[in-house]
Amino acid sequence: MIALAALVWLPRWATAGVTVITLLGHNLFDNIRADELGSVSWVWSLLHEPGLMYLGDGAQLYVLYPLIPWIGVMAAGYLLGPVMQLEPQARQRVLFQLGAAITLGFIILRATNLYGDPAPWMMQDAWLATLLSFLNCEKYPPSLLYLMMTLGPALIMLAAFEHAHGTFARILAVFGEVPFFYYVVHLYVIHLLAVVTAFVLTGDLAKAPDISLSLGGVYLVWLLVLVLLYPICRWFAALKKNGSGWWWSYV
Question: Among 18, 32, 34, 47, which residue's Cα sits nearest to residue 141?
Fold first, then answer.
């Protein structure tokens, strides 16, 4: 957001250029490793490769979200702003066409294994395993293919669900009203569930049990977390609507 505060002062074409170069080009530097850069390795961790930054006196910080790709994603969202101001029919058409083009581009580029992700996909013994290998793109930092795989369908869904209504739509809207709050709280809720599960199974809070969940089991846990977070997010959404301070828009 700090970087975007500077980018918005550029002409829109210049901001678009920075966005395209950042998103399409950052995977060209995947072969550069922070541990090869000596005393300035922390700079590369901050910009491109997740890793530890040593701050001195035993203090260290783990960089999970390097700046370069995410600055491009933020700028891309800013550039999408004028599309959201179009008339509904035109907006939905542009969003769908853009999302479909990005999604199709992902399928073609990923199939070639030429560029866009540090790990190529491989044929597996079963079709589902092959599909998962195809979709297994790097998120930390987000590769070009990861962004295409997620943002393309997201744009299509944004066009399709613009006029969604009913109970299910209202439930989803609650989470959408407080995305940052949801992100922070869900980490603690999941950790609390893990601690409780460990205690129930072992009687020891410090001992982690060996639990193997199927993919279906993982989705059940995900649904449980959503159910637990819904009333909390609904409460905070109401609190946010009634708040008059400027800072509420950032939480």
Answer: 47
Full domain range(s) for residue 136? 2-25+68-160
pLDDT tens sequence across 18-34: 999 999 999 999 989 88
Q: Cα separation of 108 and 102, whole Å? A: 10
Give per-residue pLDDT as tens, 141-167.
899 999 999 999 999 999 999 888 899
74: closest CA among 3, 145, 169?
Answer: 3
Kindly give, in sequence order, each residue whose CB lies less than 8 Å from that of residue 52, ignoring residues fewer than 6 positions away: 45, 60, 61, 62, 63
d(C-alpha 73, C-alpha 181), whole Å: 20
- Residue 113 sits at the vertex; the CA angle it makes with 112 and 115, to the nearest 5 degrees, is 105
Residues comprising the chain, all counted: 251
CA distance 149 to 143: 10
Strands, E assignment, 22-115: 51-56, 59-63
Question: In terms of domains, do 20 and 116 share one?
Answer: yes
Give the total number of structural domains in the chain.
2
Buried b or exposed e, range 70-83, using 16+ CB within 10 angstroms:
bbbebbbeeeeeee
Through-space distance between the first and last CA atoms of the chain, rounded to whole angstroms: 14
* Number of Cβ within a 10 Å radius of residue 228: 15
Same domain, 129 and 21: yes
Number of other CB atoms surrounding residue 122 within 10 Å = 11
Please tell me whether residues 9 and 94 are part of one structural domain. Answer: yes
Quote the pTM value. Answer: 0.84
Query: Pairing relation of β-strands 51-56 and 59-63?
Result: antiparallel
Mean pLDDT of the region 67-82: 94
Residues 7, 97 within the same domain: yes
Structure tokens at 57: 């006196």
